[in-house]
Amino acid sequence: MLAEALLEAYATNNRIAAYLIENLDEEAWRAEPPGGKGRTIAAVVAHVHNVRGMWLKAAGGDVVEKLDPKTVSRAEAIEALSKSHRALGKLLAAALAGEGRIKGFKPDAAGFIGYLISHDAHHRGQIAMLARQGGHPLPQRVIFGMWEWGSR
Q1: pTM (2 decimals)?
Q2: What are the chain's domains?
Q3: Tens digits of pLDDT across the chain (152 residues)
């Protein structure tokens, strides 16, 4: 039961990421960051997916194709995040059903889920900030909607 709850929390985390990307102003996706330094929102999302792919490779999971931060579209990013989420979910389910370990990560699979959710959440905050600073703030309904884990 706990394993299913952890996997569902990770699935909700991925749905929240897709919700955010779907609700961004199109112009925000490639807007230059303030001062011209740092990543665009597209590059931040590519980074999230590519880090997931790095962990999948290190842990011996299914390989996912990397995203190019300069060319990825919102639709491609959502699809890629879905693929990396499914591959990690498969890896996590096997670990939680077994010894609870993820190759290359300490302490355990539950900690890895916490790490993955924290990493995604950090970058969701970064995306919201970049959108606002770039003149494309998220609507209040979207900001609050990212916290509606019970309905997402």
Answers
A1: 0.95
A2: 2-145 (1.20.120.450)
A3: 899 999 999 999 999 999 999 999 999 999 999 888 999 999 999 999 999 999 999 999 999 999 999 999 999 999 999 999 999 999 999 999 998 899 999 999 999 999 999 999 999 999 999 999 999 999 999 999 999 999 88
With a CB cutoff of 8 Å and minimum separation 6, the contacts of 136 are 24, 25, 27, 28, 31
In this structure, are residues 97 and 3 in contact, taking their beta carbons and an 8 Å threshold?
A: yes
- Written as one string, the DSSP assignment of 42-76 is HHHHHHHHHHHHHHHHHHT----PPP-TTT--HHH
Rounded distance between C-alpha atoms, residue 112 and residue 92, angstroms: 8
- Distance between CA atoms of residues 149 and 151, nearest Å: 5
